[in-house]
Write a structure and sequence with these properties.
about 270 residues; alpha/beta; Spore Coat Polysaccharide Biosynthesis Protein SpsA, Chain A; globular
């Protein structure tokens, strides 16, 4: 077993092709990072994968990805959805596992499916980026997540993803949890905030211009807001940012600057 690495699960040709692009971005930023993919697709011809696992009898749904997480060949695993893109080295993530069993970011959209016996304050997590230790507690959690999701689908086939079952299983687990900031799972289809000196390292969302998006979001070290334009949301076309978004970000910087001036003036007056 390797000490650490990146894991993908991709059933179907489309998702495997996406995973190849994502894995290439991992290798570009972290050339020594070991990468594994679990897939149903035969004859993979990609140098970006160091190890390949076979998924038999895939369901071509979210449920395909859950059980392979237990089969990771790494003691410490960074699981990535196929529609992610690494735009900066992020090896420091693995250091979190010195202290925690699992790390994930809050989901931006939060579909809000009802989860019995789970408080509203324990909100939904995005399962597209999951950092975890391969230990018995985690394996037990995976089995619970898988079972909860299967039971959920039996009751309501309209449930669109696995995240409410993840939330339920996580709340009832004994795993120690860290909540990742948006810089490590930045969903590009929704308005988002990046803190001062924060650099987005993992983009998440289907996009044919990841590099341009990453360069724009990381062009400034200041606290900033990203608002995708309507053209960005339309998959047939692309626009980095609407004029409204640009004005909002400039205005945000001006508000911070104005507040600093007000505080400075207030201190000056008190000293008179």
């Amino acid at each position: 077993m390797h000490s650490r690495g990146v894991l993908y699960v991709a059933t179907g040709e489309q998702y495997l092709n996406e995973a190849v692009i994502s894995a290439q971005s991992v290798k570009a930023c972290m050339p020594q990072m070991h990468i594994t993919v679990f897939t149903d697709q035969p004859g993979i011809n990609s140098a970006c994968f160091d190890e390949i696992g076979i998924i038999e009898n895939p369901q071509y749904s979210y449920i395909d990805k859950i059980q392979p997480l237990k089969k990771s060949p790494y003691e410490r695993t960074l699981f990535l959805d196929s529609d992610t893109y690494i735009c900066d080295p992020c090896e420091e993530l693995f250091e979190l596992l010195d202290r925690f069993d699992l790390a994930a970011a809050h989901d931006t959209w939060r579909l809000g499916y009802s989860v019995p016996n789970c408080p509203d304050s324990f909100i939904e997590f995005n399962t597209g980026v999951i950092l975890y230790q391969q230990n018995q507690k985690f394996k037990k959690f995976i089995d619970r997540w898988h079972l909860d999701y299967k039971n959920q689908l039996k009751k309501d086939m309209t449930v669109s993803n696995d995240q409410s079952a993840f939330r339920k299983a996580l709340y009832n687990s004994s795993l120690s949890l860290y909540v990742l900031p948006s810089e490590y799972n930045y969903t590009i289809w929704f308005p988002g905030f990046v803190g001062a000196c924060g650099k987005v390292k993992i983009l998440h969302g289907r996009n044919n211009r990841f590099i341009q998006t990453a360069n724009w979001i990381n062009a400034s070290p200041e606290a900033r807001v990203f608002i995708p334009s309507t053209a960005f949301l339309n998959k047939s076309s692309f626009n980095i940012l609407s004029p409204r978004g640009q004005l909002l970000i400039r205005g945000f910087s001006k508000v911070i600057s104005a507040k600093k001036k007000i505080r400075s003036l207030s201190r000056f007056r008190k000293s008179e």
